[in-house]
Amino acid sequence: MSRSRFNDGPGPSQRQLRVGELIRRRLSDVLSQGDIHDPELNAMSITVGEVTCSPDLRIATAYVLPLGGDNRDGALAALRRNRSEIRRAVTKGLQLKFAPDIRFQIDETYDRLDDTRRLFSDENVRRDLDRD
User: Fold this and answer.
1) How many angstroms separate the CA atoms of 96 and 51, rounded?
2) Segment 72-125, tens digit of pLDDT
3) Homologous superfamily, domain 14-131
4) DSSP-derived secondary structure for 32-90
5) What pLDDT digit, counting tens, does each position of 22-45 carry?
6) Is the pTM of the predicted complex or chain greater than 0.85?
7) Which end of the chain is more exposed for a tag (fewer CB within 10 A), N or C?
8) Measured at the alpha carbon of residue 42, what is the angle toward residues 39 and 44, in degrees to the nearest 5?
9) Is the separation of the CB atoms in 50 and 61 below 8 Å?
10) Is there a contact between 75 and 56 (Cβ–Cβ < 8 Å)?
């Protein structure tokens, strides 16, 4: 979480990182406890990988992935449909000056990890690495 997904400067401030982590924990709790009044959303198990905040802390982007990576579009649609209720539930437990607008995106980190593992298991790459 040291690198920001926003490419607008040297990196996120400590405050952005701290608030992002607070929102991530609270969002995970809200989704796992079923605090949202949507049976479709409550039936899903959603992992919140990271939350990044804009420099003014008014926009929080949550990178999420449904368990197993299945039904990504359905999970995103359910989260976006219940965005205002999720926002209320998340910020209710936090002491922030403004309730940030929460945006949801699919977390592609796990896909990139699988691609990297596949690359390192390639015979030519292993031969080059073993040579060093």
Assistant:
1) 15
2) 999 999 999 999 999 999 998 788 888 999 999 998 876 666 667 777 777 776
3) K homology (KH) domain (3.30.300.20)
4) HHT-SS-HHHHTS-EEEEEEEE-TTSSEEEEEEEEGGG--HHHHHHHHHHTHHHHHHHH
5) 999 999 999 999 889 999 999 999
6) no
7) C
8) 115
9) no
10) no
